[in-house]
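USER: Study each token:
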Amino acid sequence: MSATTQAPNKIVLASSNPGKLKEFQQLLAGVGLDVRPQSEFNVTDADETGLSFVENAIIKARNACDATGLPALADDSGIEVDALNGAPGIYSARFSGEGASNESNNQKLLQALINTPEAERGARYQCVLVYMRHSRDPTPLICQGSWGGRILTAPAGDGGFGYDPLFYVPTHQCAAAELSKDEKSRISHRAKALQALLEQLAAPTATTR
């Protein structure tokens, strides 16, 4: 039975990031899954103490399962910049420190690369999704998606969120923030990871494991 034809299953989205919530709503439209943000259940954010995207996604999914008793879907994502040895990576959301905002993170990244030539500004978005049936799930579904590009020298566009104004997409010759919502939902790191997850959920073993 596929995820698109079965009766809706209520799943908690383990995130309080408004940009991610909007993107997931766009990505999951019409899929047939009843995905609710953890804020509906007054779930507080988990402390992201992991050292990888996978570890942090598992921590967040388990926290949401524990608090609600429902299956949970967690995302941990960020941007890796070659010239910064993969930073900011798992610290992307708080790159500029306590109280970080999209704008302050982008400004810090621009400053860190101020003398870096274009040929060395390669970067990629990474996304890891974890689906847990319950907080003690021994075999959570884990899916990963990457999206390659490079870092611009100045922001462009006003769409998306995070580092999208600085992330140049070579295939479309524009910043991620200049893409339409539909196009970003088709090609982004999160779209790729989610498509892989939906395929796993649709597999016969997903309902019997």
Summary: The first strand starts at residue 10 and ends at 13. Residues 1-8 have pLDDT under 50 and may be disordered. The first helix runs from residue 18 to 28. The helical segments are 18-28, 53-68, 102-112, 181-187, 189-202.
